[in-house]
Every structure is written in C-alpha cells, then in structure tokens.
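job 3f2a | input accepted
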Amino acid sequence: MIEGEDMRLLYSGPYASKECPVLVVMRGTKDDQDGVSEKIVELMETEEITAATPTGAVPTLWDDWDM
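job 3f2a | predicted structure (67 res):
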C-alpha cells in the first residue's frame, strides 16, 4: 500500500506476466524556484511469507522450568 497525494499512473502495459511493470509518478521532496520534483516508482506484486511448521515434536527451551 502506498499512501500519498498527487499520484498518477504513468505506465501500465499489457499485464501478460508478473514481470510487466506498473509505473506511477508522485510528488518529490524538492519544491523551489527551479520547480517541483517528481519521483517515478515501480509497483511490484508481493506475497506473504509464511513460516514453515516443524514436522516433528521439538522440546521447547522452557519445558524444564514448567512455564
């Protein structure tokens, strides 16, 4: 998720695969007598990383302490 103001879509080509870029433009940090800067950002699809569950019973560190 990207939060921001003054964002616009720059390029969204034919979405044939995950490698197709989606580019957006948003306002940059520089704003002076030379003008307002913009930054180009590529949006990339992400996935949640799930932890692998152990296959066997592993004794926990605190078993000896009855916690």
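job 3f2a | The chain has no helices and three strands.
job 3f2a | closed
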